[in-house]
Amino acid sequence: MFLLARTDPRSVKHHGLGAFLVDIKTPGITVRPLINAVGEHEFNEIFFDDVEVPEEDLLGDNSSGWRITLRLLDYERTLCVPFYAEARYYLENLIGYARQAGCLNAALRERTARLLAECKAAELLTYRAASLADKRLPFSIESAMSKVYGSELNQRVAALGMEIVGPHSGLLEGSRCAAMDGQAAWRYLRSLGNTLEMGTSEIDRNVLAQRGLGLPRE
Questions:
Q1: What is 138-190 written as a DSSP string?
Q2: Could you tell me the pTM of the whole model?
Q3: Smallest Cα–Cα separation from 129: which of 141, 120, 121, 119?
Q4: Of 149, 161, 150, nearest to 188 (Cα)?
Q5: % of the chain surpassing 70 pLDDT
Q6: Left (φ > 0), alpha (ψ -120 to 50) or beta: where does 40 sit?
Q7: What confidence tens digit (pLDDT) does each residue in 60-103 have?
Q8: CATH architecture, domain 2-63
Q9: Pick from 159, 157, 151: nearest CA to 82
Q10: What is the number of other CB atoms lying within 10 angstroms of the CB of residue 104?
Q11: Over the range 31-59, which residues count as b (16 or more CB within 10 Å of their CB) and which as e?
């Protein structure tokens, strides 16, 4: 596991932090699953009780933890979860469902077309950040832009799915009357976490404001 810990007790805030790669089986580490809103296990809460890790587990020096963490977040926001692909896949399924249900009217066609265009924009933002990463150039601004746009787009598509499916949209897979195998409810509930994980939308907007636009912190 990746661990960010204070290595200099005299330092403050993000200074004096070290990044460690710790064996999860180290004595004193307890892992407890956290079940999300759709009943799935993706995250954990981890407890450390008198845990000792060898010095060779330290990445870099004992003050480079914050820099390493920021770089890891840049990669995670851009490359780990392709929100644009999730949104486009689900949106295409919704269009097919609407056709079968006979509710794909002119207004809905316009909304879905707009969202498909937004999926393409999100894809290009992701490719832009990935291209900079591949060239080993700074891409923290582009990764934050890609993540906040893609995650909020995924939520907008999920919200549209609830409208299209209608009264049965709240039923999860396994329910007798669930439409689309319960996709509407699952995607809506799971998408709520998109703007929290990998750094909240508020954090991403701070990155864009301060690093991208040079705005002051206060």
A1: --HHHHHHHHHHHHHHHHHHHHHHHHHHGGGTTPPTT-TT-GGGGHHHHHHHH
A2: 0.87
A3: 141
A4: 161
A5: 100
A6: beta
A7: 888 889 999 988 888 888 877 789 999 999 999 999 999 999 99
A8: Beta Barrel (2.40)
A9: 151
A10: 17
A11: eeeeeeebeeeeeeeeeeeeeebeeeebe
Structure token pair of residue 164? 């299209």
* CATH number of this structure's domain 68-212: 1.20.140.10
User: Three-state SS for 217?
Assistant: coil
Residue 52 has φ and ψ, to the nearest 5°, of -120, 135
As annotated, the residues of the chain forming the CATH 1.20.140.10 domain(s) are 68-212
Cα gap 160→91, rounded to integer Å: 9
Provide the token pair at 128: 């832009």
